[in-house]
Amino acid sequence: MKVLITGGCGFIGANFIHYLLRKRPSFKIINFDLLTYSGNPENLKSVEKHPGYRFVRGDIADKKTVSAIFSERIDAVVNFAAESHVDRSIEDADPFLRTNVIGSQNLMEEARRRKIDRFIHISTDEVYGSIAGRKKFGEDHPMAPSSPYSASKAAADLIARAYFKTYRLPIIITRSSNNYGPYQFPEKFIPLMVTNAFQGKPLPIYGDGLYVRDWLYVEDNCEAILKVLEEGKEGEVYNIGGGCERKNIDVAKKILKITGRDESLLKHVADRPGHDRRYAIDFSKIIKETGWEPAVKFEEGLKRTIAWYRQNETWWRRIISGDYLVARREAYRRFKD
Ligand code: NAD
Known about the structure:
Layout: E1 2-6, H1 11-23, E2 28-33, E3 53-57, H2 63-69, E4 76-79, H3 86-91, H4 94-113, E5 118-124, H5 148-167, E6 171-176, E7 178-180, H6 189-199, E8 203-206, E9 212-217, H7 218-231, E10 237-240, E11 245-247, H8 248-258, E12 266-269, H9 284-290, H10 298-311, H11 313-320, H12 323-334
Parallel strand pairs: 1-2, 1-4, 2-3, 4-5, 5-6, 6-10, 7-9, 8-12
Antiparallel strand pairs: 9-11
Helix pairs in contact: 1-7, 4-5, 6-8, 6-10
């Protein structure tokens, strides 16, 4: 099977490519990525020369390059490419609409024209918005996104549904909860807390820190996505959760404990506008239909993640220092053509 993976140089995409090369060695993978600030070719350095792997630099929002990549026969698409950071979407929503909405629709349109066999669209649990109390949202719950990021993801999610209903594009949508694990860009909550703790820097906590997220170890998500790719039903949506709801403040405290730092490093900062209080999804459908279940408990996943960041200090230090930007420019030059 030849799979086009978009956004494969980012956090989940890179983990998925490593996972797929291990689990399905006969697959051919094309990684199509624009290499924005969060797309890091170093995440795939170890597989660059793998015969089943190829990188193509390109923009999903650019119709011409998308069309060119589909000129060879592709069996399936997994669309990870996105602008993914809520805080950045509050600063400037434009790139979010361009990539997440227009870019996703370009891919779906081209996939429809070429009659590809399967299209997995990676959405998010953030499309449901905040949920109070102890309830959990199932796949049929109406969307109520709060940030420009989640609104752009909700728009793409609805376009995906429309492409199934109208054109019968064999599309499946996944909505996962917060992922964590290796290769996550250190502006996101867990890697930011971990790398700051390593450096003895304050850990910034939004507002009262009582925001609740469900945490999913990234390799569990990769396994679920592969299950959906191979066994999911066309036109369906699958929630993918970790079953590990935690308050932000408790996650930060746990990180301080594991890294041997003091809680005096916790620093409450002004809250994010429109901050959703709690995300919680019911993911019984994917369990029922495919037998997939999250395998990694939060405490175990967090220890593994912290160990990975400890062993890969050069990786994250290059990102948080100016060196990363120099490497970015080199990568742009290298893949210009
Ligand atoms: P990321 O920011 O780490 O990676 C995004 C990747 O997309 C980068 O490699 C970037 O270069 C690439 N990209 C951006 N714009 C592009 C464009 N126009 N054309 C081609 N490539 C482009 O994001 P992530 O955390 O790995 O998230 C991947 C997907 O999973 C996103 O769709 C996100 O919405 C979704 N998701 C993420 C989480 C999470 O916790 N990280 C949870 C649920 C859903």
